[in-house]
Amino acid sequence: MPLLRKSQPVGLRLATGATADTAVRARLAAPQWSHGALAVLGTMLAFELATRLELLPSRYLPPVSEMLSALADRLGQPAFWEAVGQTMQGWAIGLAIAFAVAVPVGIVVGSSGLAYRALRPLIEFLRPIPSVALIPLAVLVWGTGMESKVYLIVFAAFWPLLIQTLYGVQDVDPVAIDTGRMFGLGRVQRLVRIKLPSALAYVATGLRISSATALILAVTCELVMGAPGLGRTINVARSAGSLDVVYALVIVTGVLGLIVNTAFGRIEKRLLRWHPSQRLDTEGC
Amino acid sequence: MTHSNSSRTPRAAVRRRPGWSTLAGLAITASLSLAACGGGSDDGAAAAAASAGSETAKPVKLRVSVVPGAQVAPLYVGSEKGFFRAEGLEVKPEILGGGASDITSILNGDMQFAFSNTVSLLVANSRGLPLQIVTPGSNGGTADTKPWNGVVVKAAGSVKRVEDLAGKTIAVNELNNIGSVTINAALRKRGVDTSGIKYIEVPFPDMNAALDAGRVDAVWENEPFITQALSDGGKLLLANYQETKPNLIPAWYFTSKPYAAKNKDVVARFTRAMNASLEYSQSHPKDVRAAVQKFLEVPKSVADRMALPQWSTARDASTLSMITGLLKDQGGLLKKDPNLDQLLPQAG
């Protein structure tokens, strides 16, 4: 729930008034993480029981304990860490390129009415294209390696960042702008001192959304094209009938997603301590 | 969503000028396609440069497209044994996913060699694609060898004998490909009417579940899934490769004609190293079992029990001509006759 709420514009979040409420309740109850840990344990236990009792066929869905023991086994293998590295390398390069391109473009397009009007149809056309639909094109042009993976990650991660930056720049408090103008700030100074800091919360949210998208695309490319990484290992294990390994690696991709999201959430909190969007909300994410 | 943003629209409406969007669109499209071309040609140049400096210190790096499965184990075994290094080669097996085509990867130069099945190669050749076989990929074996590929049914199901397959539904990994073509051929040899058989497509890893759930009457599968099926109440009914033709070659390593023409030496060295790997693997099952465990994720318990593929090195054209005949018999799967001399040049 906090995840979802945070990606909404500031105004909306304040308007709901739910934030203060939850914060109070959170302070009264047990430590936050214990709830999450309990839910995870409960889910694992339920799956374990369901497969042990053959409510779910254990031949096709191994018990959680077997997945975890396959996972423990993997953790000691260099090939596993190499695959994790390949996946995260594609993720990092793709996300970095998307960030480096989308944020400046978003600032320019968001600050200029002309650019916004000119590019909006194009953005609205390209944005909904699922990156996965471009796989055949990527394979044809760049082959099945890192280049294709990075290209598809950049394509997918670009849009949330662009849109968030764009709206962040546009959604600056007009009073702040007018105040700046009154104090004699020029166009550039208004951009640097008022618009960008104000847009930062949007960019941070965009980055968090894009970081998850980038990870999804990295694993998808590996699964579907065979680019080296965790996704490809999942495919190979599936072809060998090693379902415990398949699920162990699926768990790893989930954990990576969790780590990435938590990390970006933390960074966001730190950097934007001063920002109105962070002030009321003290619960972790 | 952060979509609605009304504060800005009035200004936008006033200054509205048509034409800009089209222009910007064109500019972006153009720059994208330019970038695309650049990336492609760089790769080609790098590959060419790598193969040019042949016998010197640095080994030639080759990307070889393979399928996930024990059939390609010799490539891994040979790498470990140093057969490729001895020829000044460094092979990197690339296991493609279902969304990428090995033939495309060969034609666009992404890979230098690939492993693909006989039917796919014949169909590609008949469409005029410039491909050239270098050496066999696997061998279907004979009646004396344990089948590593075949049609599996439920032991307690309605299909008891091979004859019962008439009119039934059989799952294959790809329609109109090596599976159904050789199943039909093997059944016809036994006098079974194949006209009523319905083939449906199921990925190999899902075959046993499909059979279990009764969605199909029989499945065509490879090891290790046969071993798994047999331990779960399955029965191997028909070894369609062996029965179609003893020592049938179901798959081959191949390259593109342009690459072969430019890199004759590399192709010859790859062929020698590959043949050494095939021969070694055929006579060293222990190494193969270790390799499928290490590189192809087969669990140890299965790797130790499963029937291993057979391998041979003879560039046996008789399989190609026989499968061509079958493809023509079985309802025009080939639009044009393949040129076998081109696909399998006997001199090279």
Question: Would you give an account of this structure?
Answer:
The complex is a heterodimer of chains A (285) and B (348). Chain A contains 14 helices and no strands. Chain A is an all-alpha fold and 285 residues long. The longest helix of chain A is centred in the C-terminal third of the chain and has 39 residues, at 187-225. With 348 residues, chain B is of the alpha/beta class. Helices cover 45% and strands 16% of the residues of chain B. Chain B is built from 16 helices and ten strands. Chain B has helices at 9-14, 20-52, 73-81, 83-86, 102-107, 118-126, 178-189, 207-212, 225-231, 240-244, 257-262, 264-283, 285-295, 300-305, 317-329, 340-343; strands at 60-66, 89-95, 113-117, 131-136, 149-154, 169-172, 198-201, 218-222, 234-238, 251-256. In chain B, helix 3 crosses helix 13 (285-295). The longest helix of chain B is centred in the first third of the chain and has 33 residues, at 20-52.
